[in-house]
Structure formats: C-alpha cells, structure tokens
C-alpha cells in the first residue's frame, strides 16, 4: 500500500482525479475502482505491488500486431477496474478489491524487472489483464525502471483516464492498446458504467504523443453492432487519428453478465469490409478465420506478415519495417 497520486481534499472527502469518474471518497471508503481508499484523509493505492497474474505472452495477444511482431512480452496485472463492463472477459480480477481476493503475490518494481529480464528475447513489460490505470503508481514506477533497463512498456487500457495523468505516462510508455468499446455514449453509460467522450480524448492525446497505438473494438451481438454507428466510428478514427490507425475487430463470446449469442462471422465480415474502406490496417480477432489475420502493404498490397494463431512470420519487411517490394513504411521502427 502506498499513497496515491492525483487527489485533493474536498471538505471532509477526497477527490480523486486519476480517471474521469473523479470520485468523491469519504473516510474509510473506496472509489469506483475498489482499489483506491481514503484512509484518514490520505488516498491509498491498495493494489500497489499486488500481483494477480504474470505471464510471458506473445505481443499479438495484447493485441498489438505492428509493435515488434512475433515477440514475447512479460505481462503483469493486478486487481480492480474503473469500468464495470457487463461483458468483461476478466471479471474475476477486474471486479474485485484486495480484501475480497486471496492468492495475491507481492512484488516491488525492481523484482518485476528482474523477472522480465530473466527471459531471453523478452521485449518489455505489458500492464494488462485488469485496468492498469487504477494501478497507476506501481505501473509508472515499474515503467521508469524498465525503461532504464532498455525494456519497452506497453499499456493495455480502456482509455478512461484523465488527461493530466495520461500526459505523465507518455515519456515512459512506448505503446498503447486501447479498447474503443462502442461509438455510443448510451452504451458506455449502461453497459460499462462510464462515458465515451473521455476515451476519445485519450485516443487523440495518444495519437498526438507519437506513441504506438492500436485500437480494439469488441463487437457484441445486437448491442454495439449497428453498421451505421460502426461506420461513424470508422470515419472518426480515420479523420481524427489517421487512416494508418490499426484496428482490431474482436468477436464477442458470452461472459460475466452478458449472455447474447456470440457475434456471427457474417456480421464480423461485413464490419471488416466497412473498416477496410477507410483504414489501412484492419484485423479480426477471437475467431478462426483466414480473413483479417495477415498484414498487407497499404501501398502495393504485398503480404508482409503472415499469422496463424499466435505464430507470426515476417515475410515481406526489411530491417526498418518497410515493404520489401515498394519500400513503403509498414511497421514503425
Ligand atoms: S481511479 Fe478509482 S477512485 Fe480514482 S476517480 Fe477513478 S474510479 Fe474513482
């Protein structure tokens, strides 16, 4: 446990400004994320150094397809989340706090780095599994140390973070994998207990920062799969973030409080085609299909990366990430 950052006293309560919920927290109570607590007028991050999951994962699992493709990244997560998505795939760890959950190991940032560098070929650390925003202090301290060791830092996030704390992350975070859960504020309010606008602001800030960005949109049957709304989202991405923005359209399966049918292949294919009209790099995730797996040069259409599951083969890029056929830059280096 450690004192949290980004809070002020507001009367006899604490006002946390880490995320756009801006919780007002009475003494002895926690914020919406369940892991930040007012203890006698001090905001405490209860999940500091509390580790729930640790794995060496393929980078494609984050999902990041254009950031060191084919590499392994040490992935760490804790507990808690500032969203309450009814379809959460990791609800056992995201929708709980430290007191309710047993089996946590503790680690200092230094110990985590030692583990990360113990595996040859590991490119860095991904802060993932639960929402790393609510693990902010531990994440940033670890990321600063990791950077000194020459490791890359990756944040897998819902993007519901206030601008000031996000800005502080840019010097140490190399890549962001952000969920854009729908292009509909009502969906955000009723299905995730948050709001759309702050996520769009965060996406624009990340793009402007020059850090690597990939977006994932999980498509849920009869919930956020309206093609008109999806087209509006694609237009917004192309106009505000650029047509080179990498988009993963992901298939939904029933989970937690959501029991709609899994997304049909026909629907995913149709949305894939809509997205490909505007964006250079569109992928289909969470489904067995040859479609939407491989990377093609946006200029000459040569296949440059082939993927079968998490087996990734770079077949048409030079050392600088350019297409071998036409020299178009495909992967940022
Ligand atoms: S980080 Fe947690 S406590 Fe702070 S505003 Fe967000 S939900 Fe509330």
Named CATH topology of the largest domain = TIM Barrel
Bound molecules: iron/sulfur cluster
Oligomer state equals single chain
H/E element order: EEEEEEEEEHEHEHEHEHHEHEHEEEE
How many strand elements?
19
Radius of gyration: 20 Å
Give me the CATH superfamily of the largest domain: Aldolase class I
Count of helical regions? 8
Percent of residues in beta strands?
Answer: 25-35%
How many strands, what sense, and barrel or not for the largest sheet?
A: 8 strands, mixed
Helix content: 10-25%
Q: Could you say what the CATH architecture of the largest domain is?
A: Alpha-Beta Barrel
Distance between the termini: 38 Å
Uncertain spans: none
Strands in their spatial order, largest beta sheet: 8-9-11-12-13-14-15-16
Shape: globular
CATH class of the largest domain: Alpha Beta
The total domain count is: 2
Q: Compute the average pLDDT.
A: 97
Structural class: alpha/beta
């Amino acid at each position: 446990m450690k004192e949290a950052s980004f809070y002020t006293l507001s009367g006899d309560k604490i006002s946390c400004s880490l995320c756009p919920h801006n919780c007002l927290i009475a003494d002895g109570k926690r914020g919406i994320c369940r892991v930040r607590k007012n203890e006698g007028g001090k905001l405490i991050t209860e999940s500091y150094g509390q580790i729930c999951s640790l794995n060496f994962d393929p980078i494609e699992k984050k999902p990041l397809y254009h950031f060191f493709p084919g590499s392994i990244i040490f992935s760490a997560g804790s507990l808690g989340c500032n969203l309450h998505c009814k379809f959460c795939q990791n609800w056992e760890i995201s929708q709980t706090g430290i007191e309710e959950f047993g089996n946590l190991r503790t680690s200092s940032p230094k110990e985590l780095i030692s583990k990360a560098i113990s595996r040859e070929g590991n490119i860095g650390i991904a802060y993932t599994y639960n929402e790393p925003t609510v693990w902010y202090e531990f994440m940033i301290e670890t990321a600063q140390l990791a950077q000194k060791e020459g490791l890359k830092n990756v944040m897998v996030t819902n993007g519901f973070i206030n601008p000031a704390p996000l800005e502080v992350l840019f010097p140490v975070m190399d890549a962001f994998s952000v969920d854009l859960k729908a292009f509909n504020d009502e969906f955000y309010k009723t299905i995730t207990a948050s709001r759309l606008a702050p996520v769009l602001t965060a996406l624009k800030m990340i793009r402007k920062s020059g850090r690597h960005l990939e977006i994932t949109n999980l498509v849920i049957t009869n919930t956020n799969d309206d093609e008109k709304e999806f087209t509006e989202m694609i237009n917004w991405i192309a106009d505000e973030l650029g047509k080179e923005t990498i988009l993963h359209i992901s298939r939904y399966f029933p989970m937690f409080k959501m029991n709609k049918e899994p997304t049909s292949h026909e629907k995913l294919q149709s949305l894939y085609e809509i997205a490909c009209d505007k964006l250079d790099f569109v992928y289909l995730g969470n489904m067995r299909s040859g479609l939407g797996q491989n990377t093609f040069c946006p200029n000459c259409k040569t296949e440059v990366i082939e993927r079968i599951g998490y087996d990734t083969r770079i077949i048409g890029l030079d050392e600088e990430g350019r297409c071998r056929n036409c020299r178009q830059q495909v992967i940022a280096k």
